Amino acid sequence: MAVTIREVASAAGVSVSTVSRAFTAPDQVQPTTRQRILDAAAELGYSPNPAARSLRGGGTGTLGLIVPDIANPFFPPIIKAMQARARHLGYTVLVADSDEREADEMAAIAAVSKRVDGLILWASTLTEDRLHELAGRMPLVVVNRHVPGIPEVRISLAAGIAQAAEQLKAYGHRRCVFINASRAELSRGKSIQESFEALDLSLSELGPYEPRFETGVHAATLVAAHEATAVIAHNDVVALGVLHQMANLGVSVPRDVSVIGIDDTLLASVSTPSLTTIRIDPEEIATRAGDLLIETIANTTGRTGPGLDAASPIVEIGSRLIPRASTGPAPAH
Amino acid sequence: MAVTIREVASAAGVSVSTVSRAFTAPDQVQPTTRQRILDAAAELGYSPNPAARSLRGGGTGTLGLIVPDIANPFFPPIIKAMQARARHLGYTVLVADSDEREADEMAAIAAVSKRVDGLILWASTLTEDRLHELAGRMPLVVVNRHVPGIPEVRISLAAGIAQAAEQLKAYGHRRCVFINASRAELSRGKSIQESFEALDLSLSELGPYEPRFETGVHAATLVAAHEATAVIAHNDVVALGVLHQMANLGVSVPRDVSVIGIDDTLLASVSTPSLTTIRIDPEEIATRAGDLLIETIANTTGRTGPGLDAASPIVEIGSRLIPRASTGPAPAH
DNA sequence: TTGAAAGCGCTAACAT
DNA sequence: ATGTTAGCGCTTTCAA
Question: Which UniProt keywords apply (chains A, B) (predicted)?
Fold first, then answer.
């Protein structure tokens, strides 16, 4: 068995409560005593048992993060950043994925909910009702999902899209295609349409499709029919499908067609040509979401009734264009 | 507060121990009683508190997995597969990364060790001594690291390499280059050298480098000097660097040079041209590693002295070539 | 400033 | 087959 608080207590010649305080409320114990305890603890290799702590009611010290798909290259950097941030704040992060299916998401939530102090649900597939019910039982933050009354982190593509439109305009493009592959409630289409119209760029929307490589391959064959010289894809994976098929068709990128992705995953920087894309900073979103959850946990603790708060917070994360080699001047025609 | 075993007990009109047994030893309670308990539990939305369970000594129901880098595209599918497997077996998986640095790995281990029943250490940076010490304190499985006395999962590239050599030979290649970017103790070089020699293929080794995209870019410029017509890269990322630079140099892949990666990450299937690579099945390795750890946990529980076992198990995971578009006949010359 | 003791939810003797 | 109860390690009143 591991070393317990009692052994530290007897080694330091104090009671267990003093040892406990030495860790959780250091200023309540005499400096000399505290030092003696800390030394004894170090000597014995003591560290508090988290199970006992959380049983006692102190919370689990763990944040839960449910993402649609761990294997989607967009998420690993976010997970990594959130782990780092959380550790810094004394938390651990427990990650699970929902596979974009409600049943799996419920299972994932059930599996982690008793082990965490709160939950970050990314693009949740759950109904509003269920989310509200869940939020009533534990601190909750949703990302990329708007549910009134639940704290939210929202990714805004507006800035990145506007920059993309500007770049394409400056390069002389006139007709563009957007490959849409969003679930309805997450659609990326609307804001894009507006940004492009504002600059007098025509934008045809294809889809909605599944956000897969093959979607890009398929959509690429449709670009010519629209007489478009630029393509914005739903994400980097789809954009790579476009690049792939353009190469097959003997269409040069960016000479004949410019291609823009979204997410700035690893894929974008290692493709050939490297992919111009709209970056969403993983560290920022991870940090903001983690902090928001911790804040929500803090507000929930020691509150009796259900949230009579003012409006629940909404944090917005920006985006920006990362110009790389897949965009360039429109063909002379 | 959440619903406890006591509330279920009174709702079902039985004692807490009967409720406990209804969950942990169903056959020890009368079917009718059990059903009544299960109904009451469902009604109340009861689920056992894992903190209480583990405090009681029942283990945490969690497996720890420390990988070098969550953001390395090789790992997410493995993490995902291990989660799935573990959930199936009633476990949760807690993942952390070591960033390839001993200090970070120690911190990660410290952060999770009290929350898990055992640990899978992937390509651990720790010294053998530390690993032995750790193994003395908790069930341990190492992956891609050989430490006598510690259960181990080992990835064997032999089969995949042999198939690669055969393919290149059949395509008429004679001179090849291997871009090595391994830490010494993990080196992929030796077995490759042997496989190629066995088929009378000349293999020059470049490096060791860091396993990054830029390494591939750099190494690509060196291939011509070796008069090689085929390149095997340390992993897919490095291979993409090669593809990228070959395109820059106006060298056609696979017409002029064939390129082979290792890992079969997402990158390989979405590159242009798609990348021939050596696949290590993420599900297999995740399953085997998870199962081995659970087995090790089971053997440790209820054993008194330190392991006087027979030799600790070593599980070997195979590999195979996935032919795609980046390999083809050697140029006629 | 420090100590004694109750109790968090659960399981496993032990008793019936 | 079911009930009673001690105790896992810790924090936190309450007392001194």
Answer: DNA-binding, Transcription, Transcription regulation
